[in-house]
Specification:
Largest sheet: 7 strands, mixed
CATH class of one domain: Alpha Beta
Number of helices: 17
CATH topology of one domain: Rossmann fold
Helix content: 55-70%
Oligomer: single chain
Radius of gyration: 47 Å
CATH architecture of one domain: 3-Layer(aba) Sandwich
Distance between the termini: 40 Å
Number of strands: 14
Length: 594
């Protein structure tokens, strides 16, 4: 149940160097100390070692472990042009299985991830979920383990120098100063293997409290900006609005036209619609009359000369046939004439009916129009259009203002009621956490003993330190305290972070807690007494001899004081550190291959 880093390189090769002849373009990680070393020789004694690429190499590891890539990470972001066309590749081991991650800066939201030689491309979000389940998830843990925590938890193991205010200020607040302690406590309990369900409940409660308080402030601001009053004066304003609405309604009733105006308006709309319908009916009936008249005027006649011509033609052929044809023609002509007369009579009747309907519609239109004119004159004589419209508009505005204000004050009071309920829940959770801390006192004491052991090994001549988890009366409910003698280290918070981080990792090894078994500390020894570095090195060696597997990755630079403070410790001469290092950079041989 462990995670170890194995190799870091680029595809294609040639983006960065290791400074090691045996694997020039690959960073090969090992167990125990992994130095990323900045070194200079006599020809470079006056050149600075800052900017050689030690922290940038740490950024590349973090990039493969799905850190955000953007302008906030200034050091890596400024190299985006150099990184174009390359994939950064990290191989690691988890549960004795080799995995691989490939990521590029052009399409950093898609990751190639999987068992070595079986990787597949997946979205960044899915990759975070898979890595969380692979690295942190284990069924034995009784608390809450949320896959959305992946990067927050990984930040504990990847402490990289960002040149920002507040770095290494507190070993517990390992994210940023903007993260609430109630949030960070969730992760700390998880990393320590302690049940964090109550701690998570408290975080959600405090988040709800903050959201509620923000809403209360917004309601107060809206009331002050829109109504020009404070929240405590809302009831008086509501009372004034209600009285004003009553007064306005009374004024409208005084017109004696409030309801009549409404009825008149409805009647006007009905009459206008009726007139429109009648006009449309007359239009189409008039069109139909014109069509009938045009059809009526087309006479269906067969001239006598044509009939005689036909008779003569058949008489010349045969007298008897001519007689028969003549008779048939007369019958056909008479039938056709009768049909034409019937058609003419029908069209005349239709035209008469349509003309009658048009006259009726016109009469109805005139009556409706007269009624409509009377209604207009009535309203005009009472000034209803002007006075009532303004009155109704003013009434509507006041009613809307009242409704909005009542809604705001209801929201405010509901939020204040929730505030009282939250106080009750807050007290209940506080009591539950107090009882829980008593219940797990043995587990806390066990970690305190481990912490003290680590401290005493790294600071053998110092006064004793202390670790405790105690109830807090504030919103955080828990205080994780690391006491440390400030006089024992120039880098007090860095020393506390160093001891605590190693203790957490050793606690995970002792208790089989699923998490990475590596730590990366960038710049943690800057400003610390180098004697602590020597003691840490020997302590790590002793732990390895005991069979404890872990990796401690640290950035170091050669300094004049380094040689002097190490004294007769041959193992930690500059040359031996460079020999043991996984990466060595100089002012002329930096990380990047130009």
């Amino acid at each position: 149940m462990t995670m170890f880093l194995k190799r870091l390189y680029s595809e294609p090769p040639g983006l960065f160097r290791s400074g090691k002849s045996e694997y020039p373009d690959t960073i090969v990680f090992k167990e125990g100390f992994n130095f990323i070393f900045g070194k200079k020789d006599s020809s470079e004694s006056k050149k600075p070692l800052n900017g050689t690429g030690k922290s940038t190499l740490a950024d590349l590891i973090d990039f493969c472990l799905l850190a955000d890539f953007g302008s906030k990470n200034k050091r890596l972001w400024k190299e985006k042009d150099r990184l174009e066309g390359y994939k950064i590749v990290l191989e690691f081991e988890a549960d004795s299985v080799d995995y691989i991650i490939k990521r590029n800066t052009i399409d950093s939201k898609n990751i190639e991830f999987g068992v070595l030689y079986q990787e597949e491309e997946i979205p960044l979000k899915d990759a975070k979920t898979k890595l969380f389940q692979l690295i942190f998830k284990y069924p034995e843990y009784e608390g809450i383990a949320d896959e959305k925590w992946y990067r927050s938890l990984m930040s504990f193991f990847m402490k990289i120098h960002k040149k920002i205010k507040g770095e290494f200020t507190d070993p517990i607040k390992f994210l940023t100063q903007s993260n609430k302690l109630s949030e960070i406590n969730q992760y700390q309990f998880f990393l320590l293997g302690l049940d964090n369900k109550l701690i998570c409940r408290n975080f959600e409660l405090q988040k709800d409290v903050r959201d509620r308080n923000t809403a209360i402030r917004q309601v107060k601001r809206i009331v002050e900006e829109n109504y020009g009053i404070s929240i405590r004066d809302v009831d008086s304003q509501i009372s004034r609005l209600r009285n004003e609405i009553k007064r306005t309604r009374a004024a409208i009733d005084a017109f004696k036209l409030a309801e009549q105006f409404k009825d008149v308006e409805i009647k006007l709309n009905e009459l206008t619609g009726k007139i429109k319908d009648l006009s449309e009916q007359n239009f189409w009936m008039d069109k139909k009359i014109k069509s009938y008249k045009e059809s009526y005027e087309l006479k269906d006649r067969l001239s006598d000369s044509k009939i005689r011509g036909i008779e003569k033609l058949y008489n010349e052929l045969n007298d008897q046939l001519g007689g028969i044809i003549c008779k048939s023609l007369k019958e056909a002509v008479n039938f056709r004439k009768g049909l034409a007369r019937s058609r003419e009579d029908f069209l005349k009747e239709e035209i008469q009916q349509l003309e009658s309907d048009i006259r009726k519609n016109e009469e109805e239109k005139n009556k409706s129009d007269e009624q409509r004119q009377k209604l207009f004159l009535l309203l005009k004589s009472k000034n209803a259009f002007t006075d009532l419209t303004q009155a109704f508009y003013y009434l509507g505005e006041q009613e809307k203002k009242l409704s909005d204000l009542e809604g705001e004050i209801k929201t405010y009071r509901d939020l204040e009621a929730e505030k009282q309920l939250y106080k009750k829940h807050d007290a209940e959770i506080g009591l539950a956490i107090n009882s829980f801390l008593e219940k797990i006192k043995d587990e806390i004491d066990a970690f305190e003993r481990l912490f003290s052991e680590v401290y005493n090994r790294i600071y053998p001549k110092s006064a004793s330190s202390g670790f405790s988890i105690t109830p807090s009366f504030g919103v955080d409910k828990v205080n994780i305290n690391i006491s440390f003698d400030k006089d024992e280290s120039k880098g007090w918070n860095k020393g506390r972070t160093l001891v605590y981080d190693i203790a957490v990792m050793l606690n995970a090894i002792h208790n089989d807690i699923r998490m990475p078994h590596f730590l990366l500390h960038d710049g943690i020894f800057d400003g610390m007494d180098k004697s602590q570095f020597v003691e840490l090195y020997h302590y790590v060696q002793s732990l390895q001899k005991e069979g404890k597997r872990f990796q401690y990755i640290v950035t170091m630079i050669e300094e004049g004081e380094l040689r002097g403070n190490f004294g007769a410790t041959d193992e930690l001469s500059v040359e031996n550190i460079a020999e043991q290092a996984i990466a060595v950079f100089t002012p002329n041989q930096t990380l990047w291959i130009d």
